[in-house]
Write a structure and sequence with these properties.
Shape: flat
Helix content: under 10%
Oligomer: single chain
Radius of gyration: 28 Å
Low-confidence stretches: 1-43, 151-155, 408-412
Mean pLDDT: 84
Distance between the termini: 20 Å
Largest sheet: 4 strands, antiparallel
Number of helices: 4
Length: 570
């Protein structure tokens, strides 16, 4: 804290003009008869802002506004984008003119705030589990309070935070948007479920519900989670009971009929359910016993997958589904047209003719041919390989084309030699802990346990591989950064690395690299922030970081970083 006070005082003494009138709206006379007491008052005012804001706990960007959560849980907001909504700031900003004005006024929430998030309205979750909301207009009035009770703001929305009427600590909020009907659900720490909104999806027994405030849903069980699949709602209890309500036009609630439900109804599932999910219209349930059931959101009860091991994860990719067991064995089923099953070509003998045919699809699980326990599966997009990290730190790839260069000729059919039917080990002699992929390009980045990064791919025109040139790489090449990398962050054609000691490096397309230059960069270059970086917030313009010391830095296009409060002096 002392550094900010000292920095402010020094600048005031040296410049004699601490605040420009277009930033703070304060006129300062530079002649010898300047009123020193006025300067001292303004200095004290800035120091007061510093003492309240810093150290910063978190910074959040929502819809053009920035929200600073201080260490004591107070929240300050200010507009970043010209199109930012003034209603989202958390107070009436009609008389606000300068950045100092905004940061001198905390949002009126009487409890320490833990998180801020956006579900059409702005919500703040406090440390005690209370939920506050603001930024309401007539178009998004289903925010959890009766909008029409606030007559003075009825035409313009609610400026100030209002506490939702929920008597239990809030754990999670989930929003459902469909057919112009907005329904929101609250899960509490006590396992209760609350909801508000329109239609039978609310679950309060009224098919024509129009609830503006939270109502408690009548489920006499501790609810762990709810899952929304189109207009059908599912709740999973602590003991594995599955409940369903909402749209049942195709029998997808598995209740033996096609009648919609306005009240949560128990589903007679074969086993206690632990996880229930939808991936690209494939419904799967993982049970407490480690079994997996799948269906395609139709009337029939999900079918049990024939795997004699406990399943811990299910991953769907294109027309192929993967099942990862607790022991690290990986199974697959579905299409093998482009080799995504990871088993090689699957042959079947026709008994009548004793001929063998190649199967393009299998309906029973087959084992992916990796002879190490798999820890994690990473997918990019169809036509590109699937990657698996093993418990030993090896990386395997399979499926799609063997070389990304072939994708330029996707219009033609690939030969068997061009398709990667069997898992192939990536040649890196270090233990890999993470894979990063740029979904818009074919570039792949590996991060090792030792903090070294490797990269390869067909898009390196702007140096985004970070290997010291602008040439495409077919095999993993070491990124030219000698410090221990803790984390990589990819932003289209730019890459950022946070090191173990908190340094921030950037390379690639040079728009928001924070390097005060215009040329693209092919070697990781240190961003000029003299504090350990904790978090990088990649909005469009500017980019923000929060440091371990609780400072906020930002930089605009082709500019170097500025400390937020120090920018007052410019």
């Amino acid at each position: 804290m002392k550094k900010y006070i000292l920095y402010t005082v020094c600048l005031l003494i040296l410049s004699g003009c601490a605040f420009l009138s277009n930033v703070f709206g304060i006129e300062v006379n530079s002649s010898s008869n300047t009123n020193n007491s006025n300067i001292d008052d303004k200095t004290a005012n800035i120091n007061d802002i510093v003492s309240k804001l810093y150290p910063v706990k978190d910074f959040v960007y929502i819809s053009g506004n920035g929200y600073i959560i201080s260490k004591n849980g107070s929240v300050y907001s200010y507009p970043i984008s010209r199109n930012a909504s003034s209603f989202s700031l958390g107070y009436n900003a009609n008389n606000m003119e300068t950045l100092k004005d905004y940061l001198n006024k905390p949002i009126n929430i009487p409890e320490p705030v833990e998180k801020i998030f956006d579900y059409n309205c702005i919500y703040a979750l406090t440390k005690s589990g209370s939920l506050y909301v603001w930024s309401m207009t007539g178009d998004n009035s289903y925010c959890g309070i009766d909008y029409h009770l606030y007559e003075k703001n009825r035409k313009n929305g609610i400026y100030d935070p209002v506490k939702l009427n929920i008597s239990e600590p809030v754990k999670k909020i989930i929003q459902h948007n469909s057919h112009y009907k907005v329904v929101k659900y609250i899960l509490t720490e006590n396992g209760s479920l609350y909801a508000w909104g329109r239609g039978y999806a609310v679950g309060n027994g009224n098919p024509s519900a129009d609830e503006k405030q939270p109502v408690k849903i009548n489920i006499h069980n501790y609810i762990n989670d709810i899952v929304i699949i189109q207009d059908s709602i599912y709740a999973i209890s602590n003991d594995g009971t599955l409940y369903g309500w909402g749209d049942n036009s195709r029998g997808q609630l598995y209740l033996g009929d096609t009648k919609d439900r306005a009240t949560p109804t128990k589903i007679n599932f074969p086993e206690p359910v632990k996880e229930f999910r939808n991936i690209d219209n494939l419904i799967y349930a993982v049970t407490h016993n480690g079994s997996v059931y799948i269906s395609w959101h139709k009337e029939e009860m999900p079918i049990k997958v024939d795997i004699k091991e406990r399943i811990k994860d299910v991953i769907k990719f294109g027309n192929c589904t993967y099942f990862l067991t607790e022991t690290g064995t990986l199974y697959s089923l579905g299409s093998n047209k482009d080799g995504y099953l990871g088993t090689g070509k699957i042959k079947q003998e026709i008994k009548e003719t004793e001929e063998e045919i190649i199967l393009d699809e299998v309906s029973e699980p087959v084992k992916v041919k990796i002879n190490e326990p798999v820890k994690k599966l990473v997918t990019q997009k169809e036509e590109y390989p699937v990657y698996a990290i093993t418990e030993n730190g090896s990386v395997y790839k399979w499926g799609g084309v063997r070389s990304a260069d072939l994708l330029d000729s996707r219009a033609r059919n690939f030969t068997d030699e061009e398709i990667l039917y069997l898992p192939e080990k990536i040649a890196v002699n270090e233990k890999i802990k993470e894979i990063y992929m740029n979904n818009n390009k074919s570039n792949i980045y590996l991060l090792t346990d030792n903090g070294t990064a490797y990269a390869w791919g067909t898009y390196n025109n702007n140096g985004s591989l970070g290997v010291g040139d602008f040439i495409t790489k077919e095999y993993p090449t070491k990124v030219k950064l000698d410090e221990h990398i803790k984390k990589l962050i990819l932003m289209e054609d730019s890459v950022y690395a946070i090191t173990k000691n908190g340094s921030l490096y950037s390379w690639g397309q040079n728009e928001f690299l924070g390097l005060d230059s215009y040329e693209d960069v092919n070697i990781p270059t240190k961003v000029d922030i003299n504090e350990p970086v904790k978090k990088l917030i990649l909005v469009s313009n500017p980019v923000y970081t929060v440091t371990e010391n609780g400072s906020i830095y930002f930089w605009e296009k082709n500019k170097k970083p500025k400390e937020l409060l120090s920018s007052f002096m410019e």
